[in-house]
Amino acid sequence: MSDDDDSPISAREARRLFAGLRDAPALVLAVSGGPDSVALMWLAARWQRSLARGPQITVVTIDHGLRPEAAREAREVKRLAAALGLPHRTLRWRGEKPKTGLPAAAREARYRLLAQAARTAGASHVLTAHTRDDQAETLLMRLFRGSGLAGLSAMAPFTERDGIVLARPLLDVSKSQLIATLRRARIGFAEDPTNRDTAFTRPRLRALLPLLAAEGGDARNLARLAARLARANAAVEVLADGAERFLRLRDRGDAPQASVRSFEAATFAALPEEVRLRLLLRAINALGHEGPAELGKVETLMSVLDRAIAGPVAAANGRPVLKQTLAGALISLAGGRIQIAPAPARRRKGR
Ligand SMILES: Nc1ncnc2c1ncn2[C@@H]1O[C@H](COP(=O)(O)OP(=O)(O)OP(=O)(O)O)[C@@H](O)[C@H]1O
Question: Which residues does ATP bind (predicted)?
């Protein structure tokens, strides 16, 4: 992807990139051996040396057991880490490998193993080397899928997962700058061939990027769009928090059990559509037991719910006018209230 900025990253610039991590007790660097993460390791090592009392750093490589060269690449990272004075661990993904959705399963396993390594090292953060180019690709992938505002916000510089903060200090740095940094430091790196394997969506999309860049849709502009959408998304989240508190206050201490969320239907219906959607999504994800609900399904549920709320008043016998399950949650409308609770466990087939 064309990007005008391809100068090596200076020590000063790196200090700015890592500024928020200075007081962490220890950090784990996720290093695959590709150029981005090798550059992350080199930059972090130089930054650590420049500090009087910086965080401890452990480099971790995950061997997914999917490519024969992976073990050699992990050894190569270990060698380079040792040359930079950093301890290194290789962790292997040993579980059953699924036939479909392999990249997603590998990613899930990778983050689980990285979080585990962080706990072992007493680290508060895991650092990955996602770049501005990765951010642009993520935005495009989600755009093509028709994601909502939250998805189009792409990757955040910091996200928490199981008590460990996932940090992406290079999210606004171009890949070309990282490669220039490695060239200046005379450091070699491996290229993961799956990055170009057009059996996967991301590499196919990556091939389109130069065409978009020629029309002005370069990584810098796309990443800027993601940042602006993230800002708008954060504002809508605050509105949803406020609406949630308001609905709770309307209950005047008449709070239902923790395992049930209940909203006054008329007040709920008066909220903006995006806020209503988020409240439903939050409640379903918190109480359902079948993983996060798909946005499209929550949208369908909401229009059914909206129609039911606006429709003829429920029968006086108190029977629900609507009762539906989604992602392991039971959503009902009865007596002017919306209730969301865990759905009863489904009966197993054959019983
Ligand atoms: N095998 C690995 N071992 C350690 N870290 C890795 C490994 N693979 C990827 N990473 C870390 O994750 C970052 C992103 O890698 P990559 O872009 O290949 O993953 P992705 O699956 O496309 O992204 P994401 O993990 O966010 O979905 C790398 O820069 C590196 O920091």
Answer: 32-37
